[in-house]
Amino acid sequence: MDEHRTELAARLDDVVVGLRQLTSTRAELSLTAAATLSTLQRSGPARLTELAAAEGVSQPSMTALIARMAGQGLVQRSADPSDGRAVVLSLTDAGADLLARRRSERAARLAGPLGDLDEDEVDRIAAALPALARLAGVLQH
Questions:
Q1: Closest Cα partner for 25 from 139, 106, 133, 95?
Q2: Of 16, 52, 81, 122, whose CB is crowded by the most CB atoms within 10 A?
Q3: Do 23 and 106 touch, CB atoms closer than 8 A?
Q4: What tens digit of pLDDT does each residue of 94-135 get?
Q5: pTM
Q6: Residue 139 and residue 103: Cα distance in Å, rounded?
Q7: What CA–CA distance (Å, rounded) separates 67 from 85?
Q8: CA-to-CA distance for 77 and 48, rounded, in angstroms?
């Protein structure tokens, strides 16, 4: 990687971390829990092993997390239709509602400061979003 891209990566990381900290909602969910719910929303029902791999945690850690979230009514366990011995996890309506509320709260926290930027700055941010979305997609895989 060339020096320009290395510096850009470091600056982007600083901005992403800062925005994440400044827009984070109440700590009702850990980052891993929120990411797991988002994965279920985006990709649909999944086995625990798939979720653990997707979130980069051990199976025992994911098992404990799923137990807590199932107890909170955020995820539902059901038999895998292709293998009755396995369990498939899916997002409940309550889990989807929680994700929607958290996203709305984060967007509201960003909307105010966006109003303080001049039109050129807002346009540059908007123009960068497709490239940032592609970067996020590459990082997910």
A1: 106
A2: 52
A3: yes
A4: 999 999 999 998 899 899 899 999 999 999 999 999 999 999
A5: 0.78
A6: 21
A7: 18
A8: 10
